[in-house]
Design goal:
The chain is α/β, with parallel strands linked by helices. Helices cover 45% and strands 13% of the residues. A six-stranded mixed sheet has the order 1-2-4-3-5-10, with helices on both faces. A six-stranded mixed sheet has the order 12-11-13-17-18-19, sandwiched between helices.
């Protein structure tokens, strides 16, 4: 095998610190020619200490039909890594396309700013919170080569951490070029990190030899999550049945669905499930922290002491948030709480002189300490939870799973908080068709979502479709029109396959290449028997914005038999803001109250609609519902709630447009538009953006807020106004460019 040594100066140009070009990078080329390729990126010291295990891992991948590059260096900047991967990707477009990469050991990582719209939920104020909290750590810096970034600085504490901002001229949507995974040992576990990485790689190689069938799945629904709605939890079985039909056809132990309601503390039930040797996949849906899984609910405090402690915890949490702000006023907050709750100085003593605490957490939490002696058996674990995938922290849940003595080789987790109403199981069933874990994750990419562990791991395939290879070699978004046409023909043949996720993948590949129309997607939505494929159709239709086909599908989907489709249709209804959807949203809210999450989102849709439209729609929906008079009280209460939300909206917007209002209130109001796209106020927001008498900072924030109207029926108005704006302020001009790029 021939090695190549070069400096970064030989690579395509990237913006980076001046000393980066001195780094010597060793590239070991693949020993074999395969249909696709893969890159192992590792720091020089980890490679030196774990060479035998890394080479064994490479050889295992080669046997699995991957041509493997090994890139090693004493990495100084993320740009060095990105430059190497870009060079390999470009040089292999036609012969062995790069399908993925893994980052092992001390490979730099990036925390991104100005890209919160690429997350599902994260919206921390980057102006007021510290950079380490208000940035999103993400390997999309590496695996999405379409994006453009601007270097900010290196972290002063963690030398592996670098801060970048998404460039205003960058594409503003994720479209990963290849998949990736991260193998970074959690320092909090202690011991020799090199031995731990070597041990993990030996496990990853060993698990590859077993050709594991995916035939046992366990799911867990935590408290305070979308599983609080029993309709949502009940419909989970529909998704599992379509994704993994081989599981629901087996004995009753092949699918185990756990819910936080089953016992007071479900943590020990989870330990039992994790220990089952036959379990292949474990799916967690719950709240989380970097070092905890929040498993069970805390009951209402029954004693005076318990209530006092609950108040103390809440106040200390608020003080801690204030303390983290660069301009935080902890003393002022203390005085506020003293006055409000009649507290003395003694109440705050522990906050200013905290006792030493471990990581034990609440009894209902699963902590890092709990995992120290556990041997999780599922090869793949999904953490649909906040922060469990925070690989940049000294201790993180997903890392404890893969570095345990159990069989877990890959986990999916998030580095920041995640939206609980997102579509959790999109195309997850592909992993039973021999699709690699990383390939699945690329399809559902978010800024925060990562594979922790080996992204190339895959289960045995239930068919002979060779989807793992076809997903890379038959993409429809290449520069070769003839190849795109041939590939489109291949995927069109799979649209009628009797499998939900294979059909969904086919539709997705066609949509990525612009090879399927909105009209065709609407027909597929209406005719498809699979609930999860209908959800994919709805998501792909949303890409077309507020077109008649999208509006029609959303209106029909509000009454779909699958709760996840109804819930996402409710979200698209408020994002589109199309007037014809207002009545349909009201009618669905009246007639489907048992779907709690759907009803909650529909209330938001009615809040965002103009007040007159919303009130008329609510009245008509109630009148036409046919409910008996004993229901009128509850429905009137609901209508009054919608009216109250309308009033709150008008008060908030009045604050924003009042030049005499305090700056802090105007800032809070404009930031709220990011979560609440008030379509009726678009003209006023545009006027505020154009008004040179307004504070520049407020105009910048208004430009950013307008960038969240991505599906709005008024999107074109915003784009025209932004393009016509002329300003000498660089920050405002950059934000306006970013907004235009987001909306196009």
């Amino acid at each position: 095998m021939k090695n190549i040594i070069f400096t970064l100066a030989a690579l395509a140009a990237f913006v980076m610190p001046a000393d980066a070009a001195k780094t010597r990078i060793t590239v070991e080329r693949p020993a074999s020619k395969r249909a696709t390729s893969f890159a192992i990126v590792i720091d020089a010291e980890t490679y030196r200490r774990c060479r035998a295990e890394v080479e064994a891992y490479r050889d295992a991948l080669d046997r699995d039909e991957l041509a493997v590059y090994i890139l090693s260096a004493e990495w100084q900047t993320p740009d060095e890594v990105r430059g190497c991967l870009a060079r390999i990707y470009e040089s292999n477009l036609k012969r062995m396309p790069l399908e993925g990469a893994v980052f092992i050991g001390d490979v730099p990582f990036v925390s991104v700013q100005n890209a919160q719209h690429m997350t599902t939920a994260f919206k921390m104020n980057e102006r007021t919170f510290p950079k380490d909290e208000a940035s999103v750590t993400s390997d999309r810096f590496y695996d999405d080569l379409h994006l453009k970034f601007e270097f900010i600085e290196r972290d002063s504490i963690n030398p592996l951490r670098f801060y970048y901002r998404l460039s205003p001229d960058s594409p503003q949507r994720l479209d990963p070029t290849f998949y990736s995974g991260r193998i970074l040992y959690p320092e909090q576990l202690g011991g020799d990190k090199y031995e731990a990485i070597a041990r993990y790689l030996r496990k990853a190689v060993a698990e590859r030899t077993k050709d594991v069938d995916l035939d046992h799945v366990v799911t867990y629904a935590g408290h305070g999550y979308n599983s609080d709605c029993l309709t949502a939890w009940m419909d989970e079985r529909i998704a599992i049945g379509e994704m993994f039909p081989q599981v629901v056809r087996n004995d009753f132990r092949a699918l185990t669905q756990l819910n936080f309601r089953m016992e007071e503390n479900m943590k020990y039930n989870i330990f039992d499930q994790l220990a089952r040797p036959e379990v292949d996949v474990m799916l967690f849906n719950e709240h989380g922290s970097p070092d905890k899984q929040h498993i069970s609910a805390e009951g209402e405090p029954e004693t005076f002491e318990a209530r006092a402690e609950a108040l103390r915890s809440e106040i200390y949490y608020m003080l801690a948030r204030e303390k983290r702000k660069p301009d935080g006023d902890v003393a002022g907050a203390v005085e506020y709480f003293k006055e409000r709750y009649r507290l003395t100085d003694k109440f705050f003593e522990e906050f200013f002189a905290p006792a030493e605490k471990g990581t034990s957490g609440r009894e209902g939490d699963l902590t890092l300490d709990d995992l120290k002696d556990k041997r999780p058996q599922p090869r793949f674990v999904m953490f649909n939870a906040c922060y469990n995938g925070s690989f940049h922290r000294a201790g993180y849940i997903a890392g404890s799973y893969i570095f345990s003595d159990g069989r877990t080789v890959a986990a999916q987790g998030n580095t920041v908080n995640v939206l609980q109403d997102r579509w959790t199981y999109e195309m997850l069933g592909l992993i039973s068709h021999g699709v690699r874990i990383g390939q699945y994750n690329r399809l559902i990419a978010t800024l925060e979502g990562h594979i922790i562990g080996d992204p190339t791991f895959r289960f045995a395939s239930v068919d002979d479709l060779c989807l793992s290879r076809m997903m890379t070699t038959r993409r429809c978004d290449t520069a070769d029109a003839a190849a795109n046409a041939r590939n489109a023909a291949y995927w069109r043949e799979l649209i009628d396959v009797d499998n939900a996720d294979v059909r969904s993948l086919a539709l997705r590949m066609l949509a990525d290449g612009g090879m399927i129309s909105a009209a065709e997607l609407l027909v597929e939505y209406r005719e498809c028997p699979f609930a999860t494929t209908r959800m994919e159709c709805l998501k792909l239709l949303a890409r077309h914005g507020c077109r008649p086909e999208t509006v029609a599908a959303v209106g029909e989907a509000l009454y779909d038999s699958y709760e996840t489709v109804r819930r996402n249709a409710a979200t698209y209804a408020w994002m589109l803001g199309a007037p014809e959807l207002t009545y349909k949203a009201a009618a669905a809210a009246v007639n489907c109250r048992e779907s709690q999450r759907v009803a909650y989102i529909l209330s938001k849709a009615l809040q965002l609609a103009p007040e007159g439209h919303a009130s008329a729609a609510c009245a008509a929906a109630i009148d036409e519902s046919g409910y008996p008079t004993d229901r009128s009280g509850a429905l009137d209460e609901w209508r009054e709630s919608v009216a109250a939300m309308q009033k709150a909206k008008h008060r908030e917007m009045a604050q924003l447009f009042d030049p005499e209002a305090p700056a802090a209130r105007r800032t809070a109001a404009v930031r709220s538009v990011r979560n609440n796209t008030y379509h009726e106020y678009v003209p006023q927001l545009i006027e505020l953006l154009k008004d040179e008498s307004q504070p520049v900072e407020l105009r910048v924030m208004t430009a950013e807020a307008l960038g969240w109207f991505t599906l709005s029926y008024r999107k074109d108005e915003i784009v025209r106004a932004c393009r016509a704006l002329r300003t000498s302020d660089k920050e405002l001009a950059a934000e306006v460019r970013r907004t235009v790029n987001r909306l196009l």
